[in-house]
């Protein structure tokens, strides 16, 4: 619809609302794990994260449009004469590679991990907690791709459509839905891959960093060699002091016990995070 000339703001938010309803219905009709259907005292926290991060990424897309209008497309290197769908694919590749890079760094840089560990704290996976992320981490993740597209002069609709596609994808990636993607898992970072990224021990989740696309993991050697269904016992045992409430989780990264160090092997990306900063 955007390629046909419709404004993203006329169609994007409505489609996302419809998608959320469809995903919720699929979770009830085709659950991957019935135990994940039960509220574990996390729904309110996840709802706050969802609302906050959705507001941040939609506001970021709107701000990008304002800056683009004022700068006239920066260097003007963007292939604006290409079909919009092709422009979208190019923009998605650039934005998604930026998300992959920050996600991978977040498992190796101590301060970034403190922000990102919030996403791993959920004891179940369902459509709402795809957005369980610290607001600052949400901003940092999008920064490389936004800057790259801004310098190149990509049109705002490319950015907005990717953000919408990613939001919908995160609902399915974390969705409690029993589906298989087949060979498409080598292109898209689908639920059957991402569940392995949510295991309870830090040492077990070093891989499958792709946001929308899984191709980066396969190209850059970070695809986890796991196949089949991941264990349902997800969470983060290595961060036992993670508060369960939204405000507490926003404060937590800045109140860590001193002396905690992330020990990583630079050649294998294998890491260990000591408990309680010891």
What are the salient characteristics of this protein?
disordered C terminus; two-stranded antiparallel sheet; 48% helix; 9 helices; mainly alpha; 278 residues
What is this entry, summarized?
The protein contains nine helices and two strands; from the N terminus they run αααααααααββ.
Strand content: under 5%
- Total count of helical runs of at least 4 residues: 9
Biggest pleated-sheet summary: 2 strands, antiparallel
Terminal CA distance? 54 Å
Number of spatially distinct domains:
1
Average residue pLDDT: 89
Secondary-structure element series: HHHHHHHHHEE
Shape: globular
Low-pLDDT parts are: 258-278
Return the structural class.
mainly alpha
Q: How is the secondary structure organized here?
A:
Elements: H1 8-29, H2 43-71, H3 84-106, H4 110-116, H5 135-152, H6 156-173, H7 191-194, H8 215-220, H9 246-251, E1 263-264, E2 271-272
Antiparallel strand pairs: 1-2
């Amino acid at each position: 619809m955007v390629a046909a000339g419709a404004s993203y703001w006329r169609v994007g938010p409505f489609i996302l609302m419809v998608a959320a309803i469809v995903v919720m219905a699929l979770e009830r009709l085709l659950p991957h794990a019935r135990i994940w259907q039960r509220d574990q005292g996390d729904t309110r926290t996840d709802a706050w994260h969802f609302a906050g991060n959705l507001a941040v990424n939609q506001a970021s897309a709107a701000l990008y449009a304002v800056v683009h209008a004022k700068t006239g497309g920066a260097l003007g290197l963007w292939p604006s004469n290409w079909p919009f769908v092709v422009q979208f694919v190019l923009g998605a590749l650039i934005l998604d590679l930026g998300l992959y890079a920050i996600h991978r760094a977040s498992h190796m840089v101590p301060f970034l991990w403190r922000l990102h560990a919030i996403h791993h704290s959920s004891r179940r996976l369902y459509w709402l907690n795809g957005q369980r992320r610290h607001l600052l981490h949400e901003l940092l993740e999008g920064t490389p791709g936004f800057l790259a597209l801004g310098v190149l002069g990509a049109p705002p609709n490319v950015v907005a459509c990717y953000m919408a596609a990613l939001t919908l994808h995160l609902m399915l990636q974390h969705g409690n839905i029993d589906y298989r993607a087949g060979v498409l898992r080598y292109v898209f970072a689908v639920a059957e891959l991402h569940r392995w990224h949510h295991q309870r021990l830090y040492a077990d989740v070093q891989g499958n960093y792709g946001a929308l696309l899984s191709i980066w993991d396969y190209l850059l050697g970070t695809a986890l060699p796991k196949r089949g269904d991941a264990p349902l016992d997800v969470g983060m045992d290595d961060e036992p002091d993670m508060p369960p409430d939204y405000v507490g989780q926003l404060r937590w990264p800045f109140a860590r016990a001193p002396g905690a160090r992330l020990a990583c092997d630079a050649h294998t990306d294998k890491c260990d995070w000591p408990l309680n900063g010891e």
